[in-house]
Amino acid sequence: MAMLSTAQFPRTTPQGLLWEPSARWVRGRKGDVTVVDSRHPVLVWEPGVPVPLYAFPRAEIREDLLRPARNPTAGAHTGSTVFYDLEVDGELLENAAWTFPAADLAGHLAFEWFERTGRGLDHWYEEEEEIFVHPRDPHKRVDALPSSRHVVVEIGGRVVADTRRPVLLFETGLPTRYYLPREDVRLDLFRPTDHHTGCPYKGTAEYWSWHGEQGEADVPPDIVWSYPEPLPAVGAVKGLLAFYNEAVDITVDGERLARPVTHFTAPPS
User: Fold this and answer.
1) In terms of domains, do 118 and 187 share one?
2) What is the CATH number of the domain that holds 158?
3) pLDDT, averaged across the chain
4) Containing structural domain, residue 177
């Protein structure tokens, strides 16, 4: 199968889909069964969705595991899509795969990712590295830079962190995150939770919730997080602690930062 040239991409379809070919070798598995093994994946951005997904040529998919969907999910994806159920080792996963109506993507299927939607394939790999939640966006950059800035974090007027050795994480489309050494954080005011999230750029995060005095502050749960084993590209944040800028007061070099409004404004519980 010939590789599409990337010189004239990304392209937009009449349905509003943005797409471009990827040179990465991508595999998707359900349990121990490899369902997708593709050297010609296509990145697709649906209208209004900030992160991409992959679509794959049918020839690089185990189509023998697919069945016409018994209960198609109307409106779940862009356009008049055709849905498929996936049967693996006797387990039926409804609406696990679908087509896009765009002529540019004819002959391709996309799959749900379990860590993103709670259904679909549960392990994904780009080359030999496992990735989580969604594909990495080639137009997005993540940099973790050690700094000597003076960072102070307050909750309800109480200082809960104070450091001059943060690591600043710059991620396209998100506020700067300030990762702080544990010894510079009042971690005694927080309690670990069972919440975990996966990020294709950083790895798997663990969380803490506020445990200060009742009524001292109205703080969302899971306000603090850390990556105990981050991906190599952001290894500088290993074991450090970060706060949601959206819900705490952060002062950097004497300047109080405005609280940003993002889809993380109410952190997940």
Assistant:
1) no
2) 2.170.150.40
3) 91
4) 142-256
Q: Is the pTM of this model over 0.85?
A: no
In a domain, 69, yes or no: yes
Q: DSSP of 155-214, one letter per residue?
A: ETTEEEEEES--EEEEETTS--EEEE-GGGB-GGGEEEEEEEEEETTTEEEEEEEE-S-T
Give start and end residues of each alpha helix (H) in 118-216. none
Read off φ and ψ for residue 129, nearest 5 degrees.
Answer: -105, 125
The residue written with tokens 């040179």 in the block is 23
The values of phi and psi at residue 77, to 5°, are: -140, 170
In a domain, 2, yes or no: no
What type of residue is 251? T
Tell me: the pLDDT tens digits for 32-58? 999 999 999 999 999 988 899 999 999
The pLDDT, as a whole number, for residue 269 is: 36
The arrangement of strands across the sheet holding 249-252 comes to: 158-163, 151-155, 249-252, 255-256
Percent of the chain at pLDDT exceeding 70: 94
Show the tokens assigned to 240. Answer: 């450090």
In DSSP terms, which residues pair with 117 in a beta bridge? Answer: none
